[in-house]
Amino acid sequence: MNALTMSVSTPEPLTIIVADDDSDSRELVAHVVRGLGHSCREACDGVEARAMHRAQAADVIISDWNMPKMDGLELCREIRESDPPYWHTHFIFLTGGDGRPRLVEGLHGGADEYITKPVDLAELEARLEVASRVVEARRALEANNIALRLDSEREHIAARTDPLTAISNRRRLKEDLEPLEGRAARYGHRYCAALCDIDEFKAYNDCFGHLSGDKALCRVARAIQDHLRSGDGLYRYGGEEFLAILPEQSVADARAGMDRVRHEVEKLGIAHSPAAHASFLTISVGISNLNGGTVDEWLKRADSALYRAKSLGRNRVETEERPPDAAKRQEPPTSAGPWSSRGSAGR
Ligand code: GH3
Ligand code: MG
Ligand code: MG
Fold first, then answer.
1. How far is the C-alpha of 185 from the C-alpha of 321, rounded, in Å?
2. For the whole model, what pTM was predicted?
């Protein structure tokens, strides 16, 4: 059995570049390589081989020593310098005559193997088996690294995601809030905070049970998320409280946007407890603007606005520093009913 008729002994075919200016020698080696089931590209000199490797990195380069434009040793050195740290190109030198002095120079230059011409086909096949083992080890390491990276990315995301609603949690909020103060102060960016709280949610739980409460919480979170702008962030702030961070919006814009969100939650039509004032689950929202103060003060102002929204009857949006006649300008909420007189601010 010769090298060409042997079955492929490698688990995965290799991608190989054969570089040789002597077309007979190059074609013979390429023929053997292809016969063993590997993919093979042929280059007439070092420059061409380098370009091929740059276009698509090869697992193995089998290169003649003496070639025009760029010889094999230079090619080998370039490959070693330019390959990324996670990649190792298995480099095999081909050379005629007494190869001993070049063997040492070639290995110092970064080569892994050395074959003398005329090429012995059985030796070439054996050298490619060695290459396969090395490449397999590299591929396994690479796959392991990718899996580890994915795992750590997944863990990173999971640690910042609320497991119930799948929106960002307080840890993520803390990280996202950190740069905002500086950005607002230094570059004049505007941010509004909109604190949303489900109205009379305790009554919902008491009536339908905690599991139904969980489901309703998820639907409300999804509805809020779906109706924010793409650059806005939404976080689970507390039990049934969500915080939306709205970049580059005036308080008036934020108020209009969050009133649409409030309406969308109401439109879900999640039947509320008979003990609640409204027929359907609703949210109240408090909005504040990050204008020079600290993030903590900013969130406290949103909380005060939310408290006012609760006091004024729930299912409504209130902003900080509300002008005295603002209540008259806001459309009465569709399902607020008699809350203004009966609702309590029991958050
Ligand atoms: P208000 O309109 O004043 O906000 O009234 P409320 O009943 O919503 O407010 P309160 O703070 O009295 O109660 C909040 C309720 O939210 C009580 C708590 O059981 C419920 N809750 C908080 N987190 C969760 C959760 O993860 N799942 C469920 N099902 N309920 C939750
Ligand atoms: Mg509530
Ligand atoms: Mg609450």
1. 21
2. 0.67
Q: Which of 169, 240, 303, 315 to mutate to test the pocket of ligand 1 (most atoms within 8 A of CB)?
A: 240
Tell me which residue has its CA closest to atom 27 in ligand 1: 214
User: What is the sign of the dihedral through the CA atoms of 103, 109, 113 and 118?
Assistant: negative
310 Cβ closer than 6 Å to some ligand 1 atom: yes
Pocket lining: 236 vs ligand 1, CB cutoff 6 Å: no
Which residues, at least 6 apart from 309, have a Cβ–Cβ distance to it below 8 Å? Answer: 284, 285, 286, 316, 317, 318
Question: 102-125: per-residue pLDDT in tens?
Answer: 788 888 888 898 888 888 888 898
Ligand 1 site, residue 138, Cβ cutoff 6 A? no
The segment(s) of the chain belonging to CATH 3.40.50.2300 are 15-151
CATH 3.40.50.150 for domain 15-151, yes or no, is: no
Measured by CA distance, the residue closest to atom 23 of ligand 1 is 239
What are the tens digits of pLDDT across the range 5-63? Answer: 444 444 589 999 999 999 998 999 999 999 989 999 999 999 999 999 999 999 999 99
Q: What letter does residue 8 receive in the DSSP assignment?
A: P
Predicted pLDDT at 190: 87
| 180-187 and 170-177 helices, crossing angle to 10° | 30
Calpha distance 234→220 (Å, rounded): 12
Phi and psi for 248 in degrees, rounded to 5? Answer: 50, 45
Q: Is 178 a catalytic residue?
A: no
Where are the CATH 3.30.70.270 domain residues in the chain? 170-319
Beta strands in 163-273 (DSSP E): 191-198, 233-238, 241-247
CA 202 to ligand 3 center in whole angstroms: 9
CATH of domain 170-319: 3.30.70.270
Distance 199 CA to ligand 2 centre (A): 4
pLDDT at 43: 95
Catalytic residue among 200, 240, 318, 320: 240
The ligand 1 atom at the shortest distance from the C-alpha of residue 347 is 3
Q: Is 303 in the pocket of ligand 1 (CB under 6 A)?
A: no
Report residue 318's pLDDT band, with 50, 70 and 90 as the boundaries: very high
